[in-house]
Amino acid sequence: MSRKLYSGRLVDVSFDGEICEHSGVCVRGLPEVFNVNERPWINPDGAWSPEGAQLLIDVVGRCPSGALKIERPEQLPRVEEDSVGVTDNPARHRYEVRLDGELAGFAVYTLSEGLITFTHTEIDPAFEGRGAGSALVRAALDDVRAKGERKVLPLCPFVKGWIRRHPGYDELLYR
Ligand code: SF4
Asked: Atom 4 of ligand 1 has which residue's CA nearest to it?
């Protein structure tokens, strides 16, 4: 048994080198955490940001071999689906996410003919690590898709990264 534990502030990750298939999903998905040129090569706090812990969980969940696992996930307060609300606020040019009714963050956009440009996403630090950012981007993009009027230009790095990690949403991109 060669499983080794890497501890972070919110999330611990374990890795079993004997079953790793070297797919590269981890290093491509979150190079801030998985870097074979660093020691240790897994740093769960490397992506520390409002959404870092959630991104890490997403990437580990895509490890095809099971070499990577999230440990003590109960440490991370998860958002119940019905406590999250995402709405478009056209007057302020932004999608807003609420957790338990409280404004947790927003994604700002500009509109032009056939195009919605996401310029900036912000999550209140008080809600960090609860998946609000991911829920926000997903719902905003689902709304854009449902309306069918515009392509997406993600100037905001968070929206851009989210789309990169969620195949199926890249068809919305403006090319
Ligand atoms: S994603 Fe999993 S299988 Fe692929 S390189 Fe990373 S640890 Fe190995």
From this structure: 23
pLDDT tens-digit series, residues 1-53 = 689 998 877 778 999 999 999 999 999 988 889 999 989 999 887 776 556 77
Report which protein residue has its CA nearest ligand 1's atom 8: 20
Q: Please, what are the domains in the chain?
A: 3-75 (3.30.70.20), 81-172 (3.40.630.30)
What secondary structure does DSSP assign to the chain, as a single string?
Answer: --EEEE--SS-EEEEETTT-----HHHHH-TTTB-TTSSSSB-TTTT-STTHHHHHHHHHHT-SSS-EEEE-GGGSPPPPGGGEEEEEEGGGTEEEEEETTEEEEEEEEEEETTEEEEEEEEE-GGGTTSSHHHHHHHHHHHHHHHHTS-EEEE-SHHHHHHHHHSTTSGGGB--
pTM (whole model) above 0.70: no
Ligand 1 neighbour 25 (Cβ under 6 A): yes
* pLDDT at residue 80 in the model: 52
Tell me, in angstroms, the distance from the centre of ligand 1 to residue 151's CA: 33
